[in-house]
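step 3/5: co-fold with FE2/S2 (inorganic) cluster
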Amino acid sequence: MADDEVIGVSAAGVAIALFRLGDSFHALHDLCSHGRARLSDGFVEDGCIECPLHQGKIDIRDGSPRSAPITLPVKSFPVRVVGARIEVLLEPELLLT
Ligand code: FES
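step 4/5: write tokens
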């Protein structure tokens, strides 16, 4: 996975946007908090993901909104690297929805 890249993955049925920023990896729910757009279809710039639908920006590191029209955060998940594997910690309530 290249620096400043995003890929869409599925973990236990949950859509995840997985990012690499330098040596660190980050995971957000792959759904914009403003509409029905997949963040993994957006563009990474300056530590933010720009939504492909209305170009609002979200901070990749914590899911916080950074520009209009996005006002609500996107769920962020803890990530760890174990050898060649990237692990994302999901919360049980997400697995039931
Ligand atoms: S759907 Fe993402 S900014 Fe509107």
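step 5/5: annotate
The beta strands are 5-11, 14-21, 24-29, 43-45, 48-50, 57-59, 65-67, 76-77, 79-82, 85-88.
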